[in-house]
Write a structure and sequence with these properties.
By secondary structure, this protein is mostly beta strands. It has one helix and ten strands, in the order ββαββββββββ. It is about 5% helix and about 40% strand. Strand 7 and strand 8 form a beta hairpin. The protein is globular, with a radius of gyration of 15 Å. It starts with a strand and ends with a strand.
Length: about 110
């Protein structure tokens, strides 16, 4: 399966859906999304977390690079310069973005 995130004009994720890796067009369902749902879609990886890749069988975090840093979620930002998906900044307390993981860390 392939996973896709629809982003708005500000690159904020609106929804995430699953495509078909067996799609006859070979594009993992991308053209179907465009033709049937419209919008702007980017690929995301269910196994990306904190800039690393999670092994889909064991669930362990590997040293392999995670595609677009993190799996998309509603409200995430797609940053095309970093080519990364960044979760919303927490509202309580002070936070800074970890450039390696593209996750927010508390400022202590």
């Amino acid at each position: 399966m392939s996973h896709w995130a629809e982003v708005d004009e500000n690159n904020i994720v609106l929804r995430v859906t699953v495509g078909d890796n067996n799609d006859p067009a070979g594009d993992e369902g991308y053209q179907w999304l465009i033709d049937n749902l419209g919008g702007k879609w980017i690929k995301t990886s269910y196994n990306a977390v904190g800039g690393k890749r999670r092994d889909p069988i064991t669930g362990e975090i590997t040293n392999d690079i995670g595609f677009r840093k993190n799996y998309a979620g509603i409200g995430y930002l797609y940053d095309p310069i970093r080519d990364a998906l960044i979760p919303p900044k927490p509202t309580e307390g002070e936070w800074q973005l970890n450039e390696d993981t593209c996750l927010w860390e508390p400022i202590i």
